[in-house]
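B., you asked whether I could sanity-check this one before it goes into the benchmark set. Here's the sequence:
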Amino acid sequence: MKILTLISRLLDYPTNELSAVRHSMLDLIADSSLPLDQQKALADFVNRRLEGDLLDWQEEYDGLFERGRSLSLLVYEHIHGESRDRGQAMVDLLAQYRAAGLEIAAHELPDHLPLLLEFISTQGEEAAGWLSDIAPVLGLLAARLEKRRSDYADLFKALLALSDAAVDLADIQRQIADEKPDHTPKALDKVWEEEAVTFGGDAINGGCPSQVQRPSESQRRDQQVPIGFVDAVKKTA
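And here's what the prediction gave me:
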């Protein structure tokens, strides 16, 4: 699913690289298996974001995904929290990457959603099953983003459409209606007071991950397209 590679890039930190492949991205969206309303929403997201100021986009991205845990792009944080089960789940996921003949290019947490989507995009007919497995998290993030009135919700709705999972967003929205925001200065100060800062080590054991959120170019096994986003999109034009 090349459309997963595109969504993965849109969920990663915004860069100037996206502007150079705007038309190719739109072509890929139009050729995808997404329903027409999802295609339009995704295309509108691309156009709106690339017509805006990059620094404003980056600032918004940080405000959404880098402050607080409610919109964390670390999938297992929403499933296991800070329990030991989360560490084991990441070890198991990393083992699945390696069993598929893949290696993470940098010290990244295996459950970081852009990276996970890159992996899922290489899994052929099994991709929908992978998406279905994480559909509850995708639905939760979609609902929370809608509550924050962010168009990033459309990316998660597209992923849900590709998963074919039955997720009731309206029900999730009711469940989170009374959630207190965790991205405010007061909430963030409380987190800093309660948690120690860990330096060094690898990503799985608490080290500081880098910004590179993708497998290396040698990792795709089901397509003759390198993992680099620009090349992958151009192949579809």
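One thing to flag: DSSP finds 14 helices and no strands in the chain. Otherwise nothing jumped out at me.
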